[in-house]
Structure formats: C-alpha cells, structure tokens
Amino acid sequence: MVYKYDFLIIGGGVAGMSYALKVARAKKGKICLICKTTLDEANTTRAQGGVASVTNMLVDNFDKHIEDTMVAGDYISDPKAVELVVKNGPEQIKELVNWGVNFDRKEDGSYDLHREGGHSEFRILHHADDTGAEIQRGLMNAVRSCPDIEIKENHFAVEIITQHHLGARVTRRTPYKNCYGAYILNPETEKVDTYLSKVTVMCTGGCGAIYMTTSNPVIATGDGEAMVYRAKGTVADMEFVQFHPTVLHNPEETHPAYLITEAMRGYGGVLRLPDGSTFMEKYDERLSLAPRDIVARAIDKEMKIHGLDHVCLDVTHKDAEETKHHFPNIYQKCLSIGIDITKDYIPVRPAAHYMCGGIKVDLNGQSSIDRLYAIGECACTGLHGGNRLASNSLIEAVVYAEAAARHSLEHIDEYDFNEKVPEWNDDGTMTNEEKVLITQSKNEVAQIMSNYVGIVRSDLRLKRAWDRLDMLYEETEALYKRVKPTKDICELRNMINVGYLITRWAIERKECRGLHYTIDYPHHAYDK
C-alpha cells in the first residue's frame, strides 16, 4: 500500500503531538501521526518532575535559567539553543495550558513551583508527581479531537526513504540528501507500506531500553537515531547518556524501573546509606541537589565501596501529610511493596534515563537531511550539552515543535511527493527459533551496554563493548536480510546501531566531561 501525507510524524510523545497540533492550525495539508504502540505509552508519560520555565519574574529571570543550563551541560551546550528554549519557554507553557494541560497552582492562582537539582530557583511547573502523564493526557485529548490529524497506533517505522531507495549512492558526504517519507510496518497485515510525505518529523524518543535497568519503557530503543544514521544523516553527542540517580530499587521491576522524581530531593529528601549516614558531602557542596551526573556517579561509587545494590532517599523528617500531598503516586507505589515513605527510607539506585545526544538539528529542528526534522529526545539540539538540566526536556520538545512547525509550514509548498519511490520488497520468512534468537540478542545488548558503557567507563570496557556489538551486528544483519521485517528484529537492529554510536562517541572523547566519565583520562576542571 502507498499512502500520501503532507506531514508524516513518527512518534507520539509531547514532541510529536505538539508538532501535529501546531501544523494542524495552518490547514495546509494532511497530517499523519505514527505511533509504534499506543499514544499513552510514550516516554513523556513517565516524566514525574515537571517542566522548567521562568514564570515567576519576581525572583527568577532568563539569565539565571540560561546559566543553570550551561553549568549543568558542562559548557558544551550551544548558547543559541539554550537561549531559544529558555526565552520561548513561557509562551509554550501557555500553549500547553490552552491544550488542556493542568499545572498545580497555589491558592492565589500562581503556579506551585518546585526546585530540582542544578536549578538556582524554584521554576519547575508540575502536576503532583505525574506531570508527564498529565501532559500526555491533555495532548492526547487535543490530538484525538482534531479532525485534521490521522493517528495510526501500533505502526512501526522501519526506514526513512531517501534517494538511496531510488538507486542513488548516498554517503555521509553526499551534499544534498532528501527524505521522501518512510517505510512503515503494519503488524496487523504484517506488510511494510510506503508512506510518501512532503515533510517527515522524527519524534521517536530515547534509547534507555538498550540498558538493563532504565526508567524508560521497553519501546525506547533508539529507533529515530538509528534510522537517520543508516540514512547517512548526522548524529552528535551520543556519549552523553544520562543516568537518573534515583529509581526505586525493586529487582522485580527493572525495565522500566519506577522513577523517584528529582523533585523529591528538591523538596528536602536526603541521600543516605542504608545505615543512615550521609555521603554527598564527599562529592559536592550542593549535596543531594547537585546535578544528576555528579549524584549518579556518587551513588555508583558508594554502592561499589560498600558492596550495596542500592542507597536510600530519606524524606521521613518532612511532614507526612505534606509528603503524601506532593508525591501521591510515589507514596502509593512504595506502599505497594511495603515501604511507607513517611516512616521508611526509599531504596534507590541509578538507571539509564535520557539521551542528551541524537539526530543533529539546527535552530529550526531541521536535520542534515532535507525535509526531515527531529524533535524531542531523539534530537540533539545543543540544549543539553554534556548533561541535561532536570526538567529541561519537556519544554525543549514544545519549543522546538514550534520552531519546526513554523519552518516546515513556510517551505511545505516547495515540496512534491516523489512518485518514483519503489514499494518494499517483503521476501523472507520467520521461524519461532529465530524469534528466540532476537530476544536473546536484545538481552545481550542490554548486558553489554550496562557492563561496559555505563556510568563509569574505561578504554578496555569500551573496546570490549565495541567487539561484542560488532559480532551482534554481523549476526543480526545476516538474519535481517533473510526474514520478513518484524517489530522485534527492527528494534534489535536499532538497539545495536545506537549502542555502537554511544560506544564510538565515548571512545573518541578522551576526557571526563559531563555525563562521560572515564578512568583512563584526566578529569575535566568542572568534574568533582
């Protein structure tokens, strides 16, 4: 089957839905939103803390937010991207509210702002401790109510279409690469359909699922980054994988692990060892409110020193009713496994959380491939640099959705559908034995990445990861060429590609910087 859409959006989180709603207002063509599972399973849903934006001008200002972002990013961040996001943030907060998203307010009607690690002021807008779920709810209602947006759930993007599929030789040095749409797998028919588009937008989220313990859903397999890399597009900063310092330590629940929001430390939570002693004073004067990379490394080191599988977060000194009011979902979740957070320490440990790098884009969200945009976690805008400042990601997604929508609407009339694109060749078979091999290989990727490309790295570990991934790549590509595409094998290919990119970029950075920490090279001046 061949479908034609003016705007093809791959991914259904805050980035994809925001973009869809923004272009729908212009009434300039057909819009299709592709989602690999259902709309409510995006990474956005799991964001607990909130959205960072300067809304209280009495004590806060843009310069403070910009400086906090640059410091957290270890001064690798692009100042123009930081300024774009920070200064356009308040307007996009209004946009979210207009779409039906509710943020907690005080009795006087002003926003009830939280503070999180690395922020110099209280500027985090939130909805209790499930802000992401509230944003996803509001946007899903808005998107489903818009007659101009066609939503296709449980569809999987296999590859983006470029002139390579027309027989042209495309390399990384090819000066003008164009995207003509994507090949999309419909699991119901088990067929790969051709989706031609004038503009394609990649909003596929992160890649946490390539690690054994992650806060991300199992669908976060780096699909967008892998597809664009295979299409000879530019990716950047892939070594900077953020590990959230505090997910709930529950051996029965690692993929995804339950997130214990950063806001809990902003609220006054204190990190302790199980015996009650504190340790953050050894690592940073900001203690439990230090940026995530410092806190995650500190926890990792303490776990290794003491032979622990977790440390603890303590909010027992806070008012019990206030704690339950601010963190109702965390309270109930912990209670379900026998922990009363008003009386007991919360067992926590780091987990893969957020990819700061990704598909390299400009200030319009445009990638190195013409007619292809990338927004959200799969994109590398330059905002995060070496380490993402807490709660900057959701606002980045909406600000860049605005920039990409404006730019693509300005140029949409210049593009035509490419009618010469061939349909997918679906030769091949799949056996149950091969499905088992795919599952085993996925587990192996997660073990490789966790053991060798985690919070602390070394040349020896990275070389071992490289060799293991190379072997898996060869095996998987050989299998892929002789079977019909399925979601599982496509995800495996993407996981291997992204694991390779993270490892390669980590090998090339010969210093400790931001989230990249190696025992083989001198520590950067900002590292502690």
What does it look like?
With 528 residues, the protein is of the alpha/beta class. Helices cover 35% and strands 15% of the residues. It is built from 13 helices and 16 strands. It has helices at residues 14-24, 62-72, 79-98, 131-144, 223-230, 263-266, 292-306, 320-326, 328-336, 392-411, 432-452, 459-480, 487-508; strands at residues 2-10, 31-34, 51-52, 124-125, 149-152, 156-161, 181-186, 191-202, 235-236, 241-248, 270-272, 311-314, 346-355, 358-360, 372-374, 379-380. Strands 1, 2, 5, 6, 7, 8 and 15 form a 7-stranded mixed β-sheet that branches. A 4-stranded antiparallel β-sheet has the order 10-13-12-11, covered by helices on one side. Strands 9-14-16 form a 3-stranded mixed β-sheet, covered by helices on one side. α1 packs parallel to α10. It is globular and about 65 Å long. The protein starts with a strand and ends in a 20-residue tail after the last helix. The mean pLDDT is 92.
Explain briefly what this protein structure is.
By secondary structure, the chain is an alpha/beta fold. It has helices at 14-24, 62-72, 79-98, 131-144, 223-230, 263-266, 292-306, 320-326, 328-336, 392-411, 432-452, 459-480, 487-508; strands spanning 2-10, 31-34, 51-52, 124-125, 149-152, 156-161, 181-186, 191-202, 235-236, 241-248, 270-272, 311-314, 346-355, 358-360, 372-374, 379-380. 54% of the residues are buried.
Q: Rough shape?
A: globular
Number of separate strands? 16
Major beta sheet summary: 7 strands, mixed
Low-confidence stretches: none
Calculate Rg over CA atoms.
Answer: 22 Å
> What is the H/E string?
EHEEHHEHEEEEHEEHEHEHHEEEEHHHH
Q: Percentage of helical residues? A: 25-40%
Count, helices: 13
Average predicted local confidence, pLDDT: 92
**Strand portion, in percent?**
15-25%
Terminal CA distance reads 56 Å
The chain-level structural class is: alpha/beta
